[in-house]
Design brief:
191 residues, alpha+beta, Aminopeptidase, four-stranded antiparallel β-sheet, three-stranded antiparallel β-sheet, binds coenzyme A
């Protein structure tokens, strides 16, 4: 199924999820070095991530470039927001953010939200998005949240459903958005 790359590379992504955020982990050393790390550890990549977000989401919602870039400020050190970048052989491959709420307030009063999950088209279907999600679920657990939310265009069968997220609401926003929630186990440390 994963025809672009050998399976051990996908395994390398998942293996890295047990590492501390700052102690950037090594890949399996086979064909590639795959890492998931906080954006503040690679601040020079902020414009790359912002450009992904700009073309994927900002244009449609009329968020300008400077406002988009501001959302990927690598100097922020609060619990929220936090952005993580996945790299493959040191090349930026994907990103995901944990924010107090999504750009649209889908379910007022709920927090935190897993947002802006994105993997470069050349790097898709290798488990990178799943690895980013697991990392941010672990970060949410470390911060002390009992649950995490996200909005998806897919009603079922998404990578989020596979991780264990379940639908709690449907909101009309650029088409139906399925609001999914994942309860976080006490003591969970996917980060
Ligand atoms: C969705 C996306 C992040 C997946 O990245 P990825 O690294 O290829 O994901 P993984 O390899 O971990 O998992 C692949 C699975 O994601 C699922 N998937 C595909 N598109 C998806 C989507 N839009 N939302 C959720 N899951 C999706 C598929 O079921 C796929 O499984 P398969 O390989 O068995 O078909 C990537 O396709 C992307 O960046 N798309 C554009 C931005 C986007 O739609 N982001 C999601 C916002 S909620």
């Amino acid at each position: 199924m994963y025809t672009c790359m050998p399976l051990d590379r996908r395994q390398g992504v998942m293996d890295n999820m047990g590492e501390e955020a700052e102690a950037v982990s090594e890949g399996r050393g086979s064909l590639s070095d795959i890492r998931v790390l906080p954006l503040r550890a690679r601040p020079e990549l902020a414009p790359v991530l912002a450009s992904w977000a700009y073309f994927e989401w900002s244009l449609a919602m009329r968020r300008n470039w400077s406002a988009t870039l501001e959302r990927y400020d690598p100097t922020r050190a609060e619990a929220l927001p936090q952005t993580f970048v996945a790299t493959v052989d040191d090349v930026p491959a994907g990103m995901a953010s944990l924010r107090d709420r999504d750009s649209y307030d889908f379910l007022p009063g709920t927090t935190p939200w897993l947002c802006n999950v994105y993997v470069h088209p050349a790097m898709r279907r290798l488990g990178i998005a799943a690895a980013l999600c697991q990392k941010l679920i672990g970060v949410a657990a470390e911060v002390g949240f009992a649950q995490i939310f996200l909005a998806s265009s897919l009603k079922e069968g998404s990578l989020y459903h596979r991780i264990g997220f379940r639908e709690v609401a449907v909101v009309e926003y650029f088409g139906p958005k399925y609001i999914l929630e994942l309860p976080i186990m006490i003591g969970s440390t996917g980060a």
